[in-house]
Design a protein that fits this description.
This protein folds into 2 domains: about 120 residues, Cytidine Deaminase, domain 2; about 45 residues, Helix Hairpins (Orthogonal Bundle). The chain is built from 8 helices and 6 strands.
Length: about 210
């Protein structure tokens, strides 16, 4: 028995966003949703992607559960947003510290659970003392995140995906539509003030 999948030759265009179910789209969200659809077209299914400001800020791919994809992509989006926190921007590394080490250092600083070895490395790598990023500061900063666009390569099956997305600043969602519980998904978007678009376009890539 042979399994065959045809190549997806569909060209993503603004016409794929014509099916607005609730809310309204902005020019910026249209660009982000189009970017997201193109990105997940070439990402391993199941895929959920977050886009903001003309760039992908989080992708969750290859998970058996779509809500797990949503959580994974959301965590990456949160990390991207937290890199803009004033305390993170104030981390000045000494000359000679490699770029990847700086990235890793900022990431571990944001996550906050530094081991003694990592903490000493950060102290030695910075040219001035630093203050830890407190949990309340992290939480307050994440609450400022909004206007994020979410795209899904398959229909969103349950409202928990929307509820999870709303925790990560999502204001716009584009998905194929067609779930048995579609009414619940639409209701969740309206309750959260999220614009929902049905693309009628499945972008699975196996």
């Amino acid at each position: 028995m042979e399994l065959v999948q045809d190549r997806n030759h569909h060209e993503v265009t603004e016409a794929d966003l014509a099916g607005v179910v609730s809310g309204t789209l902005t020019p910026e969200s249209i660009q982000d949703l189009l970017l997201g659809l193109i990105a997940i077209k070439y990402t391993q299914s199941n895929s959920v992607g977050y886009a903001f400001g003309g760039q992908m800020i989080g992708i969750g791919a290859g998970q058996q559960s779509r809500v797990d994809c949503t959580k994974l992509a959301g965590a990456k989006a949160d990390l991207w947003w937290l890199r803009m926190h004033p305390k993170v921007l104030e981390l000045h590394f000494k000359t000679g510290v490699k770029r990847q080490d700086r990235i890793n250092g900022r990431t571990r600083y944001i996550e906050g659970d530094l081991s003694p070895h990592e903490e000493q490395w950060l102290v030695d790598a910075l040219d001035s003392p630093y203050e830890p990023l407190r949990d309340d500061e992290r939480s307050a900063w994440l609450k400022r995140m909004s206007g994020v666009s979410l795209v899904s390569d398959g229909f969103i099956p349950f409202r928990d995906n929307i509820e999870q997305a709303s925790k990560h600043g999502v204001s716009y969602v584009a998905e194929p539509g067609g779930s048995v519980r579609e009414t619940e998904v639409v209701d969740a978007c309206r309750t959260s003030g999220i614009t929902l678009v049905h693309t009628h376009l499945r972008l699975f890539h196996h």
